[in-house]
Design a protein that fits this description.
This protein has one domain: Spore Coat Polysaccharide Biosynthesis Protein SpsA, Chain A (Alpha-Beta Complex). Helix content is 35%, strand content 11%. It is built from 14 helices and 9 strands. It has a 7-stranded mixed beta sheet with strand order 3-2-1-4-7-6-8, with helices on both faces. Strand 1, helix 4 and strand 2 form a beta-alpha-beta unit. The two termini are 39 Å apart. The structure holds 2-acetamido-2-deoxy-beta-D-glucopyranose (5 copies). One 2-acetamido-2-deoxy-beta-D-glucopyranose (NAG) binds next to loops. Keywords: Cell wall biogenesis/degradation, Glycosyltransferase, Golgi apparatus, Membrane, Signal-anchor, Transferase, Transmembrane, Transmembrane helix. Pfam families: Nucleotid_trans. One of its GO terms (biological process) is rhamnogalacturonan II biosynthetic process.
Length: 358
Amino acid sequence: MSSFLHQRPIQNPFSNAYPVSPRSSSTSQRPISIFSPTGLIILLSLMVILGVFVPWSGMPVATFSNSKKASSSLSKWRDYTLAEAASFVAKNATLIVCAVSQPYLPFLNNWLISITRQKHQEKVLVIAEDYATLYKVNEKWPGHAVLVPPAIDSQTAHKFGSQGFFNFTSRRPQHLLKILELGYNVMYNDVDMVWLRDPFPYLEGNHDVYFTDDMAAVKALNHSHDLPPPGKKGRTYICSCMIFLRPKDGAKLVMKKWIEELQAQPWSKAKKANDQPAFNWALNKTAGLVDLYLLPQAAFPTGGLYFKNQTWVQQTKGMHVIIHNNYIIGFEKKIKRFQDYGLWLVDDHALDSPLGRL
Ligand SMILES: *[C@@H]1O[C@H](CO)[C@@H](O)[C@H](O)[C@H]1NC(C)=O
Ligand SMILES: *[C@@H]1O[C@H](CO)[C@@H](O)[C@H](O)[C@H]1NC(C)=O
Ligand SMILES: *[C@@H]1O[C@H](CO)[C@@H](O)[C@H](O)[C@H]1NC(C)=O
Ligand SMILES: *[C@@H]1O[C@H](CO)[C@@H](O)[C@H](O)[C@H]1NC(C)=O
Ligand SMILES: *[C@@H]1O[C@H](CO)[C@@H](O)[C@H](O)[C@H]1NC(C)=O
């Protein structure tokens, strides 16, 4: 079997001419000049309201996200730290995080719409990989995006599959470790996912690390929740796309090991590495020390199963919780597949997203 099937196929969004955001919001906003009489009155009113009703409390809320003033207040998000963001966004000591760069904004919005339908959007923290994403998300949804410097530069971003890009994505376990050290439960998702149901009831028990299998082979409905046996490459094919961690020593140990494995098996031209093999080696090496929990396949199927075996989809109807649009290469192909399956929500349901139409 070809190796890429078991890896998380991420691909270069820049290789396609797909417009990132067909309806740029900048055209829909009518700037009011602060030098016009109307602008001055608005500005004065705002200052009065601010001075009287909003004592400066250090709350990370952009008050004027729809006005011209937004551009100057946007720059404050540069100094917004992960600790501040986590404390602002977390509910019940729990965060849902993703890490995205600008080309993935349509996928981010699609994912967010599906999460909003399950009423968990308030816990979502977007780890922005570039300043455009940081500003865009916080402009529309103040406080819900943070950038952990350094930002990816467009030069690096264009060289997808390059060492720079690999170095960049390999910071994910570091972000997750930091969040655990701050004391939060954290769910990480890739944004090419769609929630059909609420995943939280499936996080049974008090295990350290919860994850899903990326293998497409059909399992019994009552399959074990243990780490599966290693596959052909001597390691498992657990997906690094959806992980839930409790802020316990075991989860921190796996993140530390994952960081170590990424450093020990650095990027190479031949392998076109992503962060998934290192995650699997981390699980392999910490297996005896950490309380691991494999989530049910019927609820969290790999795209290699969900999009490729209609018989199985029928048999497990009503059981699916999160769908992952993987086992396919190409930005446009992913969108097309979501559309074909009625899972591309951004065209008709953008207003359900806390970001609105992007
Ligand atoms: C809060 O978290 C605890 C433990 O993680 C969980 O059992 C409980 O259901 C959560 N409560 C809400 C309201 O989500
Ligand atoms: C990527 O990280 C490796 C190891 O930390 C380092 O040697 C290399 O210079 C980095 N490459 C880029 C392009 O950032
Ligand atoms: C699943 O169910 C089958 C048949 O009912 C049983 O033989 C098997 O031991 C069960 N497997 C697990 C892991 O519980
Ligand atoms: C870890 O990997 C080794 C080498 O492939 C394998 O022999 C061992 O069974 C794995 N351990 C676990 C717990 O999966
Ligand atoms: C598709 O799913 C059916 C039903 O679960 C299963 O019997 C069959 O082996 C699967 N086909 C493939 C190619 O995995």
